[in-house]
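quick one
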Amino acid sequence: MYFPKYRARRLRENAVLRQLVQETTLAPHDFILPLFITPGSGVRQEIASLPGHSHLSVDQAAEEAREVVDLGIPAVLLFGLPESKDAVGRAAYSPDGVIQQAVQGIKKAVPSLLVVTDVCLCEYTDHGHCGVVEGERIMNDLTLDLLCRTALSHIEAGADIVAPSDMMDGRVGAIRDTLDSKGHTHVPIMAYAAKYASSFYGPFREAVDSTPQFGDRRSYQMDPANVREALREVRLDVEEGADIVMVKPALPYLDVIYRVRQSTDLPLAAYNVSGEFAMLKAAAQLGWLDGEQAMLEALIGIKRAGADIIISYSAKEVARLLAR
Ligand code: PBG
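structure w/ PBG:
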């Protein structure tokens, strides 16, 4: 009987061998944990669609930050739930806004934790869009100035990295110029470079109450059908001065992660978004799959596709599992 000399199973014989030939690994330092900041103090209010996550007031966020650092996770990504919303998202760039306060509180409590801030208007506008609205149009260039003010206010509060997620054209360059002109030449920008108009943001929008009041985000976020366009978006952001580029969401876009990995030598982040997290949690709660194993498998898939950094609501759970 013919049999090939090579038997693939030889290297799967036991756990030590398997580990020796493992091509991809997950570590706590691969992760960034998103946090949702809310006004007040002593607030830790569970978010129903994101099990294990809560709206945190600044003092609670500082507590959380200590835990995050102890788990070996290097960074958090902050989102804000402001006291009030208006047409131009003033609370996003107010010097004493909820994010600006949280940055200060977290950096004071845990200086070694990297604080990344999401730069966008949608959590702060009453219409829920990521930019200034005229009629039903989202105005690109009018929005840039407000994004620059937002990014600058985060950095002045002490943030380490800004992450623009609005998908306006030219915002990375505009933010770079603003930061540089104010002496913040050392501050990196993590650009949501290829961000798709995705239904997987559902739980997040519920968490920050940012569902658009009219229309949708398809005039600024990308069409899920396109991948060459993602490469174009990445190229533009790199030319404008991005230090880290991001693909978002992650799991339905592994080919995009792979293609972007081939097209740039910058660090690549992938955002394992709220809906990806929620769907695994829901299936696990129903007993339909092993939640922990499915989560690790999904995350290693994202890493294998080429991501260096994974932004994930599972970061703490993963860090605990990896420590076992
Ligand atoms: C803000 C923003 C969104 C997310 C991150 N930044 C929502 C959106 O674009 O509608 C989604 C994150 C997630 O679903 O986990 N623009």
